[in-house]
Amino acid sequence: MTITETRVITTSGNGRAASSVGQRRRRYTEDQVPLKNVIWRMVAGAVVLAIFVLPYIIMFFGSVKTKSQIRSVDPTYFPVEWNWDNYIKMWSTPETPLPFNLMSTVVIAVCATVLVLLVAMPAAYYTARFKFPGRMVFLFLVIVTQMLQPAVLTSGLFRQFNWLGIGDTWTAMILVNAAFNLSFATWIMHSFFAGIPKEVDEAAQIDGAGRLTVLFKINLPLVWPGIVTAIVFTFVSCWNEFAASLVILSTDKNQPLAVALTKFVGQYETSWQYVFGVSIVAILPVVILFMMIEKRLVGGLTAGSVK
Predict the structure, then answer these.
(1) 3-state secondary structure the chain
(2) Which residue among 61, 172, 198, 285 is least crowded, i.e. fewest CB within 10 A of its CB?
């Protein structure tokens, strides 16, 4: 009995000290990371970075090699002779009019992205703010369209555009890219609009703001991360679209870079130095876009994960 009491007294007497030790341990765990863990994280990050970056490095080295170096019996990763003229010659090759292909890619991607925003933004706002008959059916059909890809519908789209008289035109590809990216953009922005309390809209309307004013001046600044996310994914999808462009666009000057790239791959000979060079040029705008809006894109992808 005496021993038990002594233990209780000792424990209660040292409670304040034990509490301070626990606080120090928690503070150490939260504020300081052991050096060993930091090193392992750096090594793991370097390995992952190398896995993703190495193909692009090899592609860049291939773009500055000569054809003989690439087709050598004993090839090397690093160029023996740096042939920077490949980036100049590829713009005037007889295989394809590359400057027109780049212009076609930019026009189709930008116009399709703008069209998606103009349609998806009010659609997402209306479905998030108003409950109307058939609302869930409409949202369900928006998801269903995600299961349909341009590659599956290319033959039907080809006949339809020819019947409308817009076959083999930029207009046809703008409509195709906009249609197949509209559902994703609508769902992304719908979730962001739904996360804004309706009281925000009501307060603005009490002050005399109309629906358009509430949408553009009140809601858009709050859902900007979601809009940036929709812009990036729509633009990248339109920029890399291949299957529908290959079927619908038959004129060399109207085809985007994704299709023009295949023209350097022949039946008996392939100009790999130009394939690598055009690939580098094709990925640069996307990389620059990601670098410019990376912070807002991360905010859009992680928004709503913590309440």
Answers:
(1) CHHHHHHHHHHHHCHHHHHHHHHHHHHHHHHCCCHHHHHHHHHHHHHHHHHHHHHHHHHHHHHCCCHHHHCCCCCCCCCCCCCCCHHHHHHHCCCCCHHHHHHHHHHHHHHHHHHHHHHHHHHHHHHHHCCCCCHHHHHHHHHHHHHCCCCCCHHHHHHHHHHHCCCCCHHHHHHHHHHHHHHHHHHHHHHHHHCCCHHHHHHHHHCCCCHHHHHHHHHHHHCHHHHHHHHHHHHHHHHCCCHHHHHHCCCHHHCCHHHHHHHHECCCCECHHHHHHHHHHHHHHHHHHHHHCHHHHHHHHHCCCCC
(2) 198
